[in-house]
Amino acid sequence: MASICHLAGSWKNVRKIFEANSQTYYCIPAATYNRYKADTFNILYGGINVKSVQIGENIYWVGAIDWDIRDFHGYSTNRGTTYNAFLIVDEKITLIDTVKTTMKEEFYSRLSDIVELEKIDYIVVNHVEMDHSGTLPEIVEKIKPEKIICSKMGQKALLDHFHQPDWPYEIAVPGEDISIGKRTLSFLETRMLHWPDSMFTYIKEDKILFSSDAFGQHLASSERFDDEIDQTLLLEELTKYYANILTLFSPKVQKLIESITKMNLEINMIAPDHGILFRSRPEFAIECYDKWSKYVSNGTALVIYDTMWKSTEKMAKHIVQGLVDEGIPYKLRNLQHYHHSDVMSEVLDASAVLLGCSTLNNGLVPRMAGFLMYLSGLRPTNKIGAAFGSFGWSGEAVKLLNQAMEEMKFDIIHPGLRFKYIPKESDLEQCVELGREVGRKIKEQQ
Ligand code: FEO
User: Given CA atoms 371, 373, 377, 379 in this order, what sign does their dihedral have?
Assistant: First the structure.
């Protein structure tokens, strides 16, 4: 983003607001903004960056960047997120998706950078979840669109959210294209990826796939494209998003990839509703989804535990010793220090998951109980599993961990280790041996 610092001195009433990410942000009076517009710089109006980003010929990103969000219903969004929306300027000016209602000013500013809002003809709703449809009622009221294009389930979801039976719904049907002038919109039904209403929109002429939540990442950045951003960071956030949102729907992701392949769909760009757009390597995003949805594992072990008086931790560290003996890369995750959504990213392609927990009140320590609830909901599979934990008198934790892993169809290779209060040397040697056993099993599978 270009800085406007050098321009500020010559203007009256330009007020510095704050500095962040090597940028200086100013509040600029409306008259000054209207005079200079955004031709020579990226301007901030009322603290909002109004510059849209061109992503194709007459196609623009008009979304909003949420630098501050840190929790997305239980998913730790440590790097913020974006709500991507897109504007296609054709004979029928078409908006694809909107943004979370709290970000609407930024969205309107970017839209106004391209057209007067009232000139928008069609709105495509790829997904009804409120981070993409929150601003819909207000913008529908403002622009009175000719069509609101959505899936059949999308119409139901819109009715259940906003209770507006008189909106001009048009059901997008796969195989029945909608012309917007020089361009044609096609639709792919992507039910349960990740909501019943979800769909993709594809522009045949530009070969852009607007993929809704799929291929998204919770990543706030000034960059918009995959060739502009650190690749490790991008992969980390792409992985975390898949792991925490889509793991449960992996069989459907497989079917979707098969149908995209069968359709010979040429894709020059994947434009998801969160994060970075893939213009240089759209195939990379698809390859990642293909791999993850096949539950391909990476030969590593993940030891996840919670501990009360460090006995379970001691067991975890001795299990790790056994993994090291077998040359297996591992990660040790004490849930007191790692967020469940970060751990979930690592579960995604780990070969083995070892769960450890002390027994508390005849059950699990709450953090492990919460983690298991989250993990079971996302239902990862194709994992080697084993449980361990220390206890005082009743010792149910290992049994409960095993039950949860059975339900997820993990390959449980050991009945589990449970030791009273503080493990003895001979107990710890059994932990080392459990680590070795898991290590050998991982190597057999590779
Ligand atoms: Fe980004 Fe399912 O909403």
Answer: positive
